[in-house]
Amino acid sequence: MACASLVAAGPAQAYWGTADVGNLAALDFSYKLSRIQMRNAERAGQRARKSTPAPLPTEARARQTAAREMAQAYPAAQREQAAALFETLLTKYGEIEDRFGIRRGDIGGALAADVAGNLMAMRQQPFPDAHFAALVRQMREAIASDPAYRRLDPVELRRSYEQLAIVGMFMAATQMALAQQPDDGLRERSVTAARRYLATVIPGDLDRLQITADGLSQR
């Protein structure tokens, strides 16, 4: 995935040794509004080559909120460490935005990172960098056509953006950590969690998903 060169820069096990993948399910309704109908997404992928919709505006606050909210799913003694980890991953995602020319705070980019990271974890395979830009365009258009997102204010959009980016980065980092240091128990939990998170976003048969230069589709 696009984040490979970033999260692999340090000891990968540090990313999954602190927080269990299953606890990332503590996401609020704004994340769950990101459910995509694949037929719309496929059409978006075809149109993306001709036009790219403007990102929805989000409001960056002085203090990140999603990291601490998500950390509440962990035991009290682990929450500060988990929150620090999530804040680090969100910062790292900002570096990916810069690398791929994605405007900071673009929720379409965060949704693409979420999908890519969970695909990595579900299949235990890297995500091809060459396909990431197309996925961003596709997810941006899918969101732009979703009335649920239009009902969210910029602060709530920012919350959803942060949640998506954190989950995508965390799952990608977990997959890369497992490639360096295998752990059968963690691998099983990672695959199960990734399927659950993807099912929240994408309906249909997850085993039929494919990613190409045109974006995501179900073969």
Low-confidence stretches: 8-16
Mean pLDDT: 79
Whole-angstrom Rg: 16 Å
Measured as a percent range, the helix fraction is 55-70%
Give me the number of helical elements: 11
Give the structural class.
mainly alpha
**Record field, number of beta strands:** 2
Order of helices and strands: HHHHHHHHHHHEE
Shape: globular
> Termini, distance in Å?
21 Å
Tally of structural domains: 1
Adjacency order of strands in the biggest sheet: 1-2
Biggest pleated sheet: 2 strands, antiparallel
Give the DSSP E fraction (strand runs of 2 or more residues). Answer: under 5%
Region (Disordered): 42-61
Pfam family, one: DUF6683
Detailed description of the structure:
This protein is mainly alpha-helical. It has one domain. It is built from eleven helices and two strands, in the order H-H-H-H-H-H-H-H-H-H-H-E-E. Strands 1-2 form a two-stranded antiparallel ribbon. Strand 1 (about 210) and strand 2 form a beta hairpin. Helix 4 (about 40-45) crosses helix 8 (about 130-145), helix 7 (about 105-125) crosses helix 11 and helix 10 packs antiparallel against helix 11. The longest helix is centred in the last third of the chain and has 27 residues, at about 155-180.
